[in-house]
Amino acid sequence: MQFVELGSRYRTNRLGIEEPLGQRTISARRLDLVFLPLVGFDRRGVRLGAGGGYYDRAFEFRRWRRFWHAPRLIGIAYSFQQLDGITPAAHDVLLDAVVTEKGILRCATG
């Protein structure tokens, strides 16, 4: 997963999706806030995604820090996607909060 600076130039690919031009990227460690799409989530901040592990790999460094959590990871979902509990995998990076149509759920790390 790559991140580009705000204000980067984009081109539209063959699927109609805008992609950044050039190869200049920034580290995930320099981000302040990231919104993540969810398939499911629980109160502790364990998330179910699309199964590729992209976010877990990009933010793996957060699992090794005890007192400083940056960037903040905010899940976006509908309230019906909340599950009673999800067994986390060893590589899972927890969310700080989840925003749904019913409000904000602060998770264990947030």
Notable traits:
110 residues; mainly beta; Rossmann fold; 4-stranded mixed β-sheet; 8 strands; 25% strand
Describe this structure in words.
With 110 residues, the protein is mainly β. The chain folds into 2 domains: 1-26, no CATH class; 31-106, 3-Layer(aba) Sandwich (Rossmann fold). The protein contains 1 helix and 8 strands, in the order βββββαβββ. Strands 3-6-7-8 form a 4-stranded mixed beta sheet, with no helix packed on it. β4 (40-41) and β5 (47-48) form a beta hairpin. The longest helix is centred in the middle third of the chain and has 5 residues, at 54-58. It starts with 9 loop residues before the first strand and ends with a strand. The model has no long low-confidence stretch (mean pLDDT 86).
> What is the CA-CA span between the terminal residues?
23 Å
Number of strands: 8
- Helix content estimate: under 10%
CATH architecture of the largest domain: 3-Layer(aba) Sandwich
